[in-house]
Amino acid sequence: MLATILQGIGGFYYAMDDTGAVHQVRAQRKLRRDRMKPKVGDRAEITPGEGEEDGWLQAILPRKNELTRPPVANIDVAVIVAAAAAPLPDLMMADRLMVNARRANIDVRLVITKCDLDEGLAAEVAGQYRGAACAPLRVSSRTGEGLDELRAALAGRVCALAGQSGAGKSTLINALYGLDLETGDLSRRIDRGKNTTRSCRLIPVAGGGMVLDTPGFSLLETDVFDPVELKDSYPEFAPLEGGCYFQPCYHASEPRCAVRDAVERGEIDPKRHGRYVELLQDMRQRWRERYD
Ligand SMILES: Nc1nc2c(ncn2[C@@H]2O[C@H](COP(=O)(O)OP(=O)(O)OP(=O)(O)O)[C@@H](O)[C@H]2O)c(=O)[nH]1
Ligand SMILES: [Mg+2]
Ligand SMILES: [Zn+2]
Questions:
Q1: How far is the CA of 28 from the centre of ligand 2 (A)?
Q2: What pLDDT is recorded for position 15?
């Protein structure tokens, strides 16, 4: 039968069939031999076990899309979660996540949590993404600000929340859907040096959608690809494409660059553009070294 993988823990997968029943299954040896590692969000062919026996996961259906970090598949929206308070938002990581998601054809939405703690920082971060087609939304799981709008935007879709550990992903899912996922305060996290959420988990929610909680992580690199393609993941550059003196233009340090002019005029955020230049340099180096 067909089922959707909700979670994978210690070699077992929990897969939900179309009646809503959840089956514990193990990947068949053939999948492991083919290095097909099931991901949360996968549609799979399974044979449920009888009685106490484990069931088997036989095949993974072709994926609509997938990410490596977090390791998830068949996502409609990547919700990038950054806090307007501790842990201070790592926007380089947010940008990397956005690039990876966009290249995988996944919609991107930026959600700034903990707005109750620093309204000013929340507004500043949202402003950096003007024109970036990620509809930055400021929310607070404590006061409830922005939650109705976010719930409406995510309704009926498969949404993966991703971002730094402690940004408030699990707390947000609890606040949105009245759930009771484990959350952890920052001091406890430092003591344990670990994530509160330890594995990806796909949760069906009222209204037909699914929400995917993921463990926080830091993303030091994007996937490797031809650096000339990096600009295609920046929607704020798109209307200016073709307006530069050099063609193609990397929009980094070339003279008479329409994107750099827009940064000068304040239409594109200078910090966001600065991080783009940094990512571009990094990508150029990794592209050169790709066969080493
Ligand atoms: N004041 C305030 N605190 C929040 C808010 N959202 C989350 N927190 C707190 O932030 C801490 C971390 O929240 P979690 O939901 O566990 O963070 P997480 O992103 O799931 O972390 P990992 O599972 O480790 O990736 C908890 O102490 C929450 O109570 C918020 O909107 N306002
Ligand atoms: Mg969590
Ligand atoms: Zn340019």
A1: 30
A2: 96
Ligand 3 center to 252 CA (angstroms): 7
CA-CA distance, 55 to 34, in Å (whole number)? Answer: 19
The closest ligand to the CA of 169 turns out to be 1
Candidates 264, 268, 265, 266; CA nearest to 237 is 268
**Number of domains the chain is built from:** 3
**Amino acid residing at 44:** A
Structural domain containing residue 48: 2-62
**How far is Cα 6 from Cα 20, in angstroms, rounded to an integer?**
11
Whether residue 103 is found in the same domain as residue 48? no
What share of the chain in percent tops pLDDT 90? 82
- The amino acid at 37: K
What's the whole-number mean pLDDT along residues 38-45?
97
The Å distance, Cα 291 to ligand 3 centre, comes to 29
Atom of ligand 1 nearest to the CA of 182: 16
User: If you average pLDDT over residues 188-194, what whole number do you get?
Assistant: 55
Higher pLDDT, 116 or 220: 116
Q: pTM for the full model?
A: 0.93
141 touches 175 (CB < 8 A): yes
Give the residues surrounding ligand 1 with Cβ less than 6 Å away.
113-114, 116-117, 140-142, 165-171, 183-185, 195-197, 215-216
Q: Are residues 46 and 87 in the same domain?
A: no
Gap from CA of 221 to ligand 3 centroid (Å):
24
**Mean pLDDT confidence for 27-48:** 92
Identify the band that residue 188 occupies on the pLDDT scale cut at 50, 70 and 90.
low
- Return the CA Rg of the chain: 21
Closest ligand 1 atom to residue 214 Cα is 25
State which ligand 1 atom lies nearest to the alpha carbon of 173.
15
